[in-house]
Amino acid sequence: MEEYKRTVLYVEDNQLNMALMHHIFKRNLPSILLLEAETAELGLSMAREVLPDLIILDIGLPGLNGYEALEILQQDEATCHIPVLGTSAFAQLSDIEKAKNRGFAAYITKPFQVKAFTETVKRLLDSGL
């Protein structure tokens, strides 16, 4: 059985993006356990239960969107310390600024540049935000 050093929760409703993320973690971040949730509601529940080291949160989720989920995470004493990496296909400068102003620790646009994404994940895990 593998021993993981860190845990990351990925909240994403698109199965292709989820499969890509599993591939990226297996190849580039093998010591990190990747957990998944298909909705913000499930992600919030898992975040409270597991207390991952990092949450990767899609902005365009059905139901609660990423901004609403981030606000709930920030207001919860159990999860407010967990850095959250926002992801979205929205790549305008205004989208990036909005995400940073709302409190995301970082924001990566889709499609991902794998090297930049991997470096961002490592930086957020190492920063201990």
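Next protein, fold it too.
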Amino acid sequence: MEQRTVLVVLFDGVQSLDVTGPVEVFTGAGLAHGGDGPAYLVRTASLDGELVRTSSGLTLVPDHALPDAPVPHTLLVPGGMGTRPEDPALIDWLREHGPRAERLVSVCTGAIRLAQAGLLDGRRATTHWAYCAKLARDHPGVEVDPDPIYVRDGHVATSAGVTAGIDLALALVEEDLGREVALTVARHLVVFLRRPGNQAQFSVQLSAQTARREPLREVQQWITEHPDEDLSVDALAARASLSPRHFARAFQAETGLTPGKYVDRVRVEHARRLLEDTSDGVEEVSRACGYGTPEAMRRAFLKALGTAPAEYRRRFHPVPPAAAPAAPTRTITAHADR
């Protein structure tokens, strides 16, 4: 198996977890794949090869100066406070050398550096939620999606803040070396195998605005605490002592979401937590979340997360390799699924 080089760019003010999270994933995967040698050769480099100080005060020792570093398979640009002031020399290096990498990855505000180098033009990307508006404003050629924890667009992958870099790194390992290797690394790091990339950065309660008027705030709380109840506009309007039309208009004006969309998001989020944290069956979860039937919940998951409830659960409660039943032998003809 060909060894893949992962080069992580370092600079003063870098967020240490943006560096160490993916490094631990790739290093662990390199040892876990069971080949003759490590599957990944992970290296770090600063522009001048000198020590860098992270935003938390830790000092990192790079392996190379960037001009002397080998052309990597995967070039990873982390984020942090160091991305706020412009760094023309680093941007110039990225502009020249970034296209040479087979895979270009950013964590958190590292996407801003890629955009400054013109490497995200015409692409869909994400970054830390607090900087999505800035990325979109400063780089109109980038299609910024503020919701997912990571985004893949061709050979370029961008992720949201801090721990999302671990999710993205696990996804890349799964793509390179298979699910079992990614699962082994996730278990070692005591993290989920990986959250789906289109999972929202925020819970619905955080992403939606809090209503100003107390009756509407009470309705928001009621929805959160009683996802299995009748949450139709008529029922919710009655709780707020408003007419259905007045309630729907006021709720959207004060929260930024229609009552129906808010309810949909709360139910999906509640179902996710039950699938992650309990052993309840899909049918039981669907009833507890107000869907009524597993098929209704399945449609909601596919629309919101791009995956079915059963597959979502497998990412959090995978069958150990030794216990997995042997797949029946069969011959299939299929197109590539990705």
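About the second fold: The domain at 204-316 is CATH 1.10.10.60 (Arc Repressor Mutant, subunit A).
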